[in-house]
Amino acid sequence: MRQILIAAAIALAVSILLTPYLIKVFSGQGFGQEIRQDGPASHQAKRGTPTMGGVAIIIALWAGYWGSHAIGMIFAADGPSASALLVLGLTTVLGGVGFLDDFIKIRKQRNLGLNKTSKLVGQLIAAVAFGVLALRFANAEGLTPAAPKLSFVRDVPTISFGAVGFVLFCYLVVSAWSNAVNLTDGLDGLAAGSMAMVLATYVIVSFWQYRNDCTTSPSAGCYEVRDPLDVALIAAAAMGGCIGFLWWNAAPAKIFMGDTGSLALGGLLAGISMVTRTELLLVVLGALFVMEAMSVVVQIAVFRTTRRRVFRMAPFHHHFELAGWAETTVIIRFWLLAAVSCALGLALFYSEWLAAIGP
User: Fold this and answer.
1) pLDDT, tens digit, for every residue of 14-73?
2) Could you give the CA distance from residue 271 to residue 159 in angstroms, rounded to a whole number?
3) Bridge partners of 50?
4) Which residues fall within 8 angstroms of residue 306, CB to CB, at 6 or more apart?
5) Closest to 14 measured CA to CA, from 270, 254, 256, 239
6) Cβ 98 vs Cβ 259: under 8 Å
7) What is the largest CA-CA distance in the chain?
């Protein structure tokens, strides 16, 4: 538990102190955000706000994770694990894809960076590398970072993908979550605040898995997860990074995370869900991101078939802005939805454990 708190504290400090420096540097370089012309009129005033602030979150994540391990050496704590390093790598690679996307937008002064094909190729490379490596590095008990099975709170024994199928499934999960978080990042602090809640929940989930690990505490309801404590460090560091960034990203935002942050954080969620065996549980925990992505899918599908729009604008947080809600009202109410989703997901996780241990 001590290492988890250290990871969160270091990441929080790095993020909250580094972000204003990035604001100064990016502003000086003219790294300003381009705004959609068809978006809410109130957003046009945000044009030129520094972007690529996700760099601070990624650096804070690295600093929090490695800093906690450096201090942990004093207390003879375990070193870095395969599960955490794979998640960290996936997050960083997708952050690199997002950085290229943001950089192209800035240089060409438009709201479109990498084309869809280039972005999907970047996500494909990251996901395939993660999927292949996650089925390797078995520990003494034969557990690998991920398993080729569908999972809710633990692996579903009747649904197995096989190695090739798992890699394809991995690509689906990574691309879905990275795009979902990217779509949610449209209002000041919305994505960062919601991510902090989901990551805080994952700190609890992975720490609970550690306390009930089958390799150290074999009993009814124990979890067969390779490195739950180290995954908790990753989640805690990312949570601290998001909170520190939110200090500067809250409305009115002084910097945006850009695709650098949103793609990285989406990949982080995907990676954590697979190494904790909770892919389906994440659909509940991250229900806000799911709804944002589905609003875009529904809008496109209905418009192409009927030439009518379901929402005034998608993603549907803009629908409420165009309906007259203040931006801060939308953000706070969506944060509440994210908090309710996290509470529901945590309740499902705990109730499954209670059912597993029996009366």
Assistant:
1) 999 999 999 999 888 777 665 555 555 555 556 668 889 999 999 999 999 999 999 887
2) 19
3) 32
4) none
5) 239
6) yes
7) 64
Q: Which of 144, 71, 62 has the alpha carbon at shortest distance from 95?
A: 62
Dump pLDDT digits (tens) for 234-271. Answer: 999 999 999 999 999 998 999 999 999 999 999 999 99
**Distances from the Cα of 142 to the Cα of 134, 164, 217, 222, 226, angstroms:** 13, 20, 16, 16, 9
105: left (phi over 0), alpha (psi -120 to 50) or beta: alpha
